[in-house]
Amino acid sequence: MAPPAAMFNEPAIDSVPLKSTFDVKTFPVQNGKTNTLAELADKWEHGFTFAPIRESQVSRAMTRRYFKDLDTYAESDIVIVGAGSCGLSTAYMLGKSRPDLKIAIIEASVSPGGGAWLGGQLFSAMVMRKPAEAFLTDLGVPFEDEGDFVVVKHAALFTSTLLSKVLSFPNIKLFNATAVEDLITRPTANGGVRIAGVVTNWTLVTMHHDDQSCMDPNTINAPLVISTTGHDGPFGAFSVKRLVSMQQIEKLGGMRGLDMNTAEDAIVKGTREVVPGLIVGGMELSEVDGANRMGPTFGAMALSGVKAAEEALKVFEE
Ligand code: 48N
Questions:
Q1: Tens of pLDDT along the chain (318 residues)?
Q2: For ligand 1, is residue 301 a contact (CB within 6 Å)?
């Protein structure tokens, strides 16, 4: 029986050597050559055409890499839950200081970045109070200096720069559109638990456990998890709420009212290992400690990420 593709008079890629040369008359073969925009300019009517492709090549280019990543990061050194400003800042600091560590970032949304694509009330500018401008300088994000604080002209400039730097680290893999829906635990000698990884599922699956039959999750083992899932909300404060339901902490302090001066110091100074194997940072921490919220100023998110990375390296070197 001929391969199905042959029935449509198309050579299934399996029957055509991968490095085949298509009919040069219809498909100018690129042979791995890369092009420049200058070569393309104004050639649209003079022989322009894309290099040939078969749909299965696109499928394999994506799936081979994704499933290799799932295999590689099934055992990670550190898992960061939540790719908001704190989680990404943590990843940036760890990516810079420990290129030897395998770091998986699990982000429920298709679009990472959390609440840091805009400033407050959907305005564009992002405010960071000094000394957080040190993080912007390290990252290479320009800002306007207003004395005790600085302003990045668009929050998306900060978040896109941070995201691009994090994604460029070869030892960091972002699994977005993927939710952490539980924590892996191991018993400790004193009757408590140590967190030893995360339980994951496609976010769309996580959102439909109530209306579909059992859709079991996947797992990532890691000796250290850093949770930065934001303050309470449909997905927020995930790990600390789970610690309460697992009876590892008695109750949540609950985020308090807005007080910039109190909130930002408390979040940065409070970033820590809440239970063995689990560091909490960013606004998720406000739910544990009952810290105030700070509203539309983001310095604490960046510096909580810096501190979370420091705490991680202390734990990791123990
Ligand atoms: O931006 P967030 O929500 O969280 P942080 O802590 O990185 O930054 C908080 C900051 O944006 C503020 O809230 C500002 C400073 N305002 C404060 C205030 O007073 O209002 O990012 C959390 C990320 C999001 O992208 C979520 O999608 C993701 O975590 N997430 C998860 N990802 C995977 N699995 C989960 N269970 C999960 N829960 C949340």
A1: 544 544 555 555 454 444 443 333 333 445 667 889 998 988 899 889 999 999 999 999 999 999 999 999 999 999 999 999 999 999 999 999 999 999 999 999 999 999 999 999 999 999 999 999 999 999 999 999 999 999 999 999 999 999 999 999 999 999 999 999 999 999 999 989 999 999 999 999 999 999 998 899 999 999 999 999 999 877 789 999 999 999 999 999 999 999 999 999 999 999 999 999 999 999 999 999 999 999 999 999 999 999 999 999 998 776
A2: yes
CA distance 50 to 58: 14
Provide the 8-state DSSP code for 93. Answer: H
Strand 78-81 with 103-107, pairing: parallel
> Ligand 1: distance of its center to the CA of 32 in Å?
41
- For tokens 């749909």, the residue is 55
Q: Is 232 in the pocket of ligand 1 (CB under 6 A)?
A: no
Kindly tell me the burial class for residue 280, based on how many C-beta atoms sit within 10 Å of its own C-beta (0-12, 13-18, 19 or more): buried
End-to-end C-alpha distance for the chain, whole angstroms? 61
Which H or E run includes 6? helix 4-7
Sign of dihedral through CA atoms 165, 169, 172, 177?
positive
- Residue 98 annotated in ligand binding: no
* Ligand 1 mean position, distance from CA 63 (Å): 29
Could you tell me the distance, in angstroms and rounded to a whole number, from the CA of residue 137 to the centre of ligand 1?
23
Is 282's C-beta closer than 6 angstroms to any atom of ligand 1?
A: yes
Handedness of CA 76, 162, 217, 247 (dihedral sign): positive
189 DSSP assignment: T
Predicted model pTM? 0.91
- C-beta 238 within 6 A of ligand 1: yes
Q: What CA–CA distance (Å, rounded) separates 112 from 176?
A: 7
Q: Is 294 annotated as a binding residue?
A: yes
Count H helices and E strands in the chain, helices first: 11, 14
